[in-house]
Write a sequence for this structure.
């Protein structure tokens, strides 16, 4: 039963163009070198450790790999997500569990593990900075003093026009950003499927990810349509959440004003019945406010 549920969950996860592109060791090495300032030229230096079948609470990491003694978790996001530190905490726990499997954690020998680094590649439209850092401790309630558990996630904006030095150091990343920008440009005037196909064809013609797109054209078009649809749905959800929050805020502010007006009228000696009639509020609500008022 558990096995069937796992298979079902895996089918629900759809790959992305970013992950497909940088699952190629040569492209991934180029990206790693650009970020770290390293100059590795042997893709075999990267040990890919992405947990292909691990989905925890709907979370699947894009790319995980080890270089020397460090473990890197790379993730692509098209919408801003402040919960990435918590997501990465769950994922790195699974990674470490796999790495120390069959080793005793009760022995007197310290089990060494690779030091983690967490990087998100962001090409959404909400945030305009070149980069920012989120901390796990931002999610702690009533945090006082230094947090006893911390996890830091660096997010890099990979939209065209951002992090130019990084883009120049990694041509594949630069061309990926150009492709995404073209898709967005064409969706303003064409249906999504037509916009994606136009973007793919133009990139091939202009030698932007041309070899990759020629070899994977149908799959890239399918994934891009899915990704852009998902991105639009997430934006609609964020907008709805924002509007609901604004509406709740207005409602709360209005109620607070009425409460203060009612208490002021109480101080002036008006009866609960008179206040209810004047402010069009039910008697029980006014009585509750009076009882909760420390000055009453």
């Amino acid at each position: 039963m558990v096995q069937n549920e796992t298979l079902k969950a895996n089918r629900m996860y759809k790959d992305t163009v970013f992950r497909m592109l940088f699952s190629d060791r040569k492209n991934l090495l180029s990206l790693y070198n650009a970020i770290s300032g390293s100059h590795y030229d042997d893709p075999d230096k990267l040990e890919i450790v992405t947990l292909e079948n691990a989905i925890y609470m709907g979370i699947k990491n894009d790319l995980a790999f080890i270089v020397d003694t460090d473990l890197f978790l790379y993730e692509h996001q098209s919408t801003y997500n402040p919960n990435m530190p918590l997501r990465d905490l769950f994922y790195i726990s699974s990674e470490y569990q796999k790495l120390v499997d069959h080793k005793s954690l009760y022995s007197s020998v310290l089990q060494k593990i690779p030091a983690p680094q967490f990087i998100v590649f962001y090409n959404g439209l909400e945030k305009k900075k070149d980069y920012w850092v989120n901390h796990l401790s931002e999610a702690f309630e009533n945090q006082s003093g230094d947090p006893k558990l911390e996890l830091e996630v660096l997010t890099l904006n990979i939209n065209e026009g951002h992090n130019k030095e990084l883009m120049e150091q990694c041509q594949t990343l630069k061309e990926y950003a150009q492709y995404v920008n073209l898709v967005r440009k064409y969706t303003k005037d064409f249906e999504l499927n037509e916009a994606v196909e136009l973007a793919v064809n133009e990139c091939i013609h202009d030698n932007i990810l041309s070899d990759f797109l020629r070899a994977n054209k149908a799959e890239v078009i399918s994934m891009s349509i899915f990704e852009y649809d998902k991105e639009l749905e997430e934006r609609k959800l964020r907008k709805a959440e924002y509007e609901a929050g604004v509406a709740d805020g207005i409602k709360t502010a209005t109620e607070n004003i009425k409460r203060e007006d009612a208490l002021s009228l109480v101080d002036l000696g008006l009866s609960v019945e008179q206040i209810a009639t004047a402010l069009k509020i039910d008697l029980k609500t006014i009585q509750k406010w009076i009882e909760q008022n420390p000055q009453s």
